[in-house]
Design goal:
alpha+beta; 12 strands
Amino acid sequence: MFTGLVEGRTDVLALETHDSMARLTLKRPDIAISDADIGMSYAVDGTCLTLVKYDADQMKFDLITSTLDKTRLGTLSVGDVVNWEQSAKIGDRNGGHDLSGHVDCTAKVAAVDPAGESRQITFDLPPALMRYVFAQGFIAVNGASLTVASLDKSAATFSVWIIPETATATNIGLLAPGDTVNIEFDRKTQVVVDSIAHAVTQYLSGASPRDMSQLIQDLNLDPAEKV
């Protein structure tokens, strides 16, 4: 699991494809040697990857077909900048939101609008996935935990505001119109939306729907999260 609090940025040194897989080599971020080990998980632009090889200068990760298909990692080039985060430890403070590192889709940057030292970034999203996006809700962009500032479901776009610290600490500050980013939706939001849609479908099809209170209990939601 991850928190969406990007710990740093690093450079792509190589992306080598072989058969249906690829090996991604990154410049070693500035972390202690004791903090890295073979088999550990890292979020690279929000994608949970397993460390397969490393030394004092480099970290290597294997990318399988589903990773190449669902994320932007397969399009990376030498010199590109990616976000990274070490996996969270149980009991750590979480100033972002819970992330699985399982990217749901990619999105395109539609516009970048500066406003003083901050900026508003608007993204185009596949229309069918806009049901998971809500104003003031969580969303992860390239592994960075962000808040949805506004959305237009008819246009299939949403916007976030980026403060100077986020622009400096992550690659979000480097985005320009046309760029591709990785997106992970808030898992609790997905579960609620899909479960309600399933219940409504049952009702409309004539089947007996579960009582909403029972549905909430099944989802193990807090009272403040009830819909």
